[in-house]
Amino acid sequence: MKVLVINSGSSSIKYQLLNMDNENVLAKGLVERIGIDGSRIVHKVNGEKNIIEDNIPDHEKGLKMVLDLLVSSDHGVLESLEEIDAVGHRVVHGGERFASSVRINKEVLDTIELMSFLAPLHNPANVMGIKASMELLPNAEQVGVFDTSFHQTMPQTSYLYAIPYEYYEKYKVRRYGFHGTSHRYVAKRTAEVLGKKPEDLKIITCHIGNGASVAAVKNGKSIDTSMGFTPLEGLAMGTRSGDLDPAIIEFICKEENITPKEMLNILNKKSGMLGVTKKYSDMRDIEDNAIEGEKVSRMAFDIYEYRIAKYIGAYAAAMNGVDAIVFTAGVGENSPIMREEIAERYLGYLGVKIDKEVNDFKGKEKIISTDDSKVKLMVVPTNEELMIARDTKEIVENNLNELK
Predict the structure, then answer these.
(1) Are 221 and 135 contained in the same domain?
(2) Where in the sequence is the active site (predicted)?
(3) Does residue 171 lie in a domain region?
(4) Mapping DSSP to helix (H, G, I), strand (E, B) and coil, where does residue 375 land?
(5) Residue 245 marked in a binding site
(6) Residue 232 and residue 141 share a domain
(7) Which domain holds residue 108?
(8) Is residue 10 a contact partner of residue 128, using CB atoms and an 8 Å limit?
């Protein structure tokens, strides 16, 4: 079975084509700057990068160009588009409606669109990708895999806010959590590396990138996570503030004479590391400049690490212990300094001991704690696309079995 995985953003489409008979990636790439000057596709086959620059006004045109590439004589890996059996779509928000991945039909698509009020920056883009895929690949099964679904196992003590309960009843205001596909993959892979069943482990997964979240995974299920009603809650991120006193919003709106909507834009796009440093949102820039001795970058780096450590401590308490702490995503996989500083500054009370020599790498799967560390410290590169493809394959196969 061949599965095309699509992660559709507001101005981009990230894609992978996988042969699920052996889980090999046949091709992958990124459609960038859709509807913006300078749009292009970066298409990779067997490690070879091909860049195609063209006017890409919308998602349908972008996806059509991707499909043309997949069957082209120069860069293709398929004889025909009919070889694509299914398309797996990353969907950011499924609310309480979707606790697992599902086959997409009109009712499901309508529901995803309705969820846009909970994720206005993400779900509309996801819907555009789904509609384009349904139009261009009418014979392929379409499957939705939701960032929020893994966290639907959280108990009420974790997901309810201490505000009038009627807001949950009327508007479903609660913690939903995000990055669920990544946290699920990493927790499962951690158990495999340790040679244990997920049901026997307490794992803290740290998805640390420009957007970042921490999850407590107890016995294979998410019991708490740092992102909440929206991806704004939790850690300090590239441009997002993370946790803050909500009274600050009214105070700044009044003092600056701005609207709550304008303030929310500031908290989402002008805060976090960008807000602290006034110039950097990328942790690579902040880390480099912190090493060079720039005080504001060092301060931002310290804030970033401290927030991560606080959540690790909270989730160790929430699970009454922890067996493994795992770093993943762009920063988590590629910043040995961050991993070392968090372990040495904050995690000693848990019995964590990091092996500095082993930790000196980027982008690999490794145990980075010493043999006598009471808690395993690990790096597991995330693979959301593979998780989406696996879910898609399973759902399609189950559907075929039901039809027999």
Answers:
(1) no
(2) 147
(3) no
(4) coil
(5) no
(6) no
(7) 2-146
(8) no
54 assigned to active site: no
Query: Which residues on adjacent β-strands are paired with residue 31?
Result: 13, 41
Residue 113 assigned to a binding site: no
Q: Is the dihedral of CA 309, 96, 104, 58 positive or negative?
A: negative
CATH of the domain at 350: 3.30.420.40
Catalytic residue among 37, 74, 147, 285: 147
CA distance 144 to 7: 11
Residues 201 and 127 in one domain: no
319 and 218 in a single domain? The answer is yes
273 carries a ligand binding annotation: no
pLDDT tens string, the chain, 404 residues long: the values are 999 999 887 788 899 999 999 999 999 999 988 888 899 999 999 889 999 999 999 888 999 999 999 999 888 999 999 999 999 999 989 989 999 999 999 999 999 988 887 777 778 888 888 998 999 999 999 999 999 999 999 999 999 999 999 999 999 999 999 999 999 999 999 999 999 999 999 999 999 988 899 999 999 999 999 999 988 999 999 999 999 999 999 999 999 999 999 999 999 999 999 999 999 998 999 999 999 999 999 999 999 999 999 999 999 999 999 999 999 999 999 999 999 999 999 999 999 999 999 999 999 999 999 999 999 999 999 999 999 999 999 999 987 766 66
31 and 136 in a single domain? The answer is yes
Q: Are strands 212-218 and 221-225 parallel, antiparallel or unpaired?
A: antiparallel
